[in-house]
Amino acid sequence: MSEVVLETNLEGVELLKRGKVRDVYDLDDKLLIVATDRISAFDVILPNGIPGKGEVLTQISLFWFEKTKNIIQNHIISGSMDDYPPPLKKFSKLLDKRSMLVKKTDPILIECIVRGYISGSGWVEYKQTGKICGIELPKNLKESQKLDEPIFTPSTKAETGHDQNITFEQMSKMIGYDLAAQIKKISLAIYNKASQYALGKGIIIADTKMEFGIYDGKLTLIDELITPDSSRFWLVSDYKEGQPQDSFDKQIVRDYLLTLDWNKTYPGPVLPGHIVDKTAKRYKEILEMLKR
């Protein structure tokens, strides 16, 4: 894997925005999305990154966009430097494997979350209310239990701070019922296809979040897709209902940070080498398992 990339600077190319992980560049009618090796936890970008993380995130997204393109069109133009505009060629060492050339869409500002298992914030909400995003669930579910059917649990997309869970009815009021229903149906179809494929590779996709936009009047799948940053991956061989699972995501980092006396505000603590190495290995392992 290449050296750690915490920030990109493509001289002569307009930086549109810098997110927690991705740097987005404006190419007039297209966008260039570059996944850095930054890692955030509790909404704070940590001082040191995870080597190769951006490459893994990009390659996993490209893999799933290709796998699901028969369900819905997506924003990918290319993930290959061969297809990039000439002004970007001189940055090939930086951009190769960690960037995607995509269509410029009008984003729908809702996180579209599908849960096949009860975990994370969904488990917390269920324990308090017996529901997730207004959906009544059976009584006496256990932590990490598989749900009878996957559920669609949207949230608002916050630029800063935490996203807020909303009901499907609230989502419908925000964007219209027909569009909300279409997004729900497609989100569930993508999750079902991906989770069945992953099970065959020994991986459980417990939940995942997707984003959509409108391109040329049509609903389009955008952003990243079913990566360790947007999903919970568990090993089938290690899965045990009724307890937290060992995840192939940022949980290693979160668990370490929870052992510290840190108030979850900027600047975050520097991660020790063994946590960085373990996290990097986890990210790489999930890509290898999916493509096996």
Automatic annotation (TrEMBL):
A single Gene Ontology CC term: cytoplasm
Domain of life, source organism: Bacteria
PROSITE patterns reported for this sequence: SAICAR_SYNTHETASE_1
EC number: 6.3.2.6
GO BP of this protein: 'de novo' IMP biosynthetic process
Keywords: ATP-binding, Ligase, Nucleotide-binding, Purine biosynthesis
Organism of this sequence: Desulfurella amilsii
Location of the SAICAR synthetase/ADE2 N-terminal domain: 16-265
Protein name, UniProt field: Phosphoribosylaminoimidazole-succinocarboxamide synthase
SUPFAM superfamilies: SAICAR synthase-like (SSF56104)
Catalysis performed (reactions): 5-amino-1-(5-phospho-D-ribosyl)imidazole-4-carboxylate + L-aspartate + ATP = (2S)-2-[5-amino-1-(5-phospho-beta-D-ribosyl)imidazole-4-carboxamido]succinate + ADP + phosphate + 2 H(+)
Gene Ontology molecular function: any one: ATP binding
Pathway the protein acts in: Purine metabolism; IMP biosynthesis via de novo pathway; 5-amino-1-(5-phospho-D-ribosyl)imidazole-4-carboxamide from 5-amino-1-(5-phospho-D-ribosyl)imidazole-4-carboxylate: step 1/2
Homology family: Belongs to the SAICAR synthetase family.
